[in-house]
Amino acid sequence: MNVNECIRSRRSIRKYQSRLVDHSIIDSIVSDASYSPSWKNTQITRYIAIEDLSILETIAEQFTPDYNSNIIKQIPVLIAVTFVKGRCGFERDGSYTTKKKDRWQMFDVGAACQTFCLSAKDHGLGTVIMGVFDEDGITELLQIPDDQELAALIALGYPDIDPEAPKRKTTDILLQYR
């Protein structure tokens, strides 16, 4: 699959097969995602692969709304995406470099999540990025270190559906030339 095909055919998957994902595939996807651009090459994104059924059940039942918990209950792997705090958007003396201050952190994580999802697609896997969850509850459950922050959850598994692409906005809406 070429890059264009991968970009245009990747979809958010909300129905999965129960088939397990081999660790070597997850390792390969994370390795690919490590090539995502980041502020001054800080590479702040980290991944926690959750396969333990009791942890998945706790996240689904206690820390996510129904529309996300219904996905989590069927996946073999949930990826908790975190980032190392205080590295993006800063100079060595701790001052902010731009008006965006530390918001570059989420930009970098977003770029890494997209690369993760495209690599997963290339490996025949489906993903959906979830942003609605009890951040404090999951942070405590997973014992995420104080120097990191939970940014997103990504469902990962073999898709049980092949959804069509939703209609796209036209280029004249998305792009301006000046």
SSE order and pairing:
Blueprint (H helix, E strand, L loop, with lengths): L2 H7 L13 H11 L11 E6 L2 H10 L3 H7 L4 E8 L19 H19 L3 E5 L4 H8 L5 E10 L13 H4 L4
Antiparallel strand pairs: 1-2, 2-4, 3-4
Assess the beta-strand content as a share of residues. Answer: 15-25%
Radius of gyration: 17 Å
Shape: globular
Average the pLDDT over all residues and give the rounded result. 94
Given as residue ranges, the uncertain stretches (5+ residues, pLDDT < 50) are: none
Based on secondary structure, the structural category is alpha+beta
Number of strands: 4
Query: How many distinct helices?
Result: 7
Strand order of the largest sheet: 1-2-4-3
Q: How many angstroms separate the termini?
A: 35 Å
Tell me the major beta sheet.
4 strands, antiparallel
Query: What is the string of helix and strand elements?
Result: HHEHHEHEHEH
Helix content: 25-40%
Tell me about this structure.
It is built from 7 helices and 4 strands. With 178 residues, the protein is an alpha+beta fold. The chain has a 4-stranded antiparallel β-sheet with strand order 1-2-4-3, with helices on both faces.
Describe, in short, the structure shown:
The protein has 178 residues and is of the alpha+beta class. It is 37% helix and 16% strand.
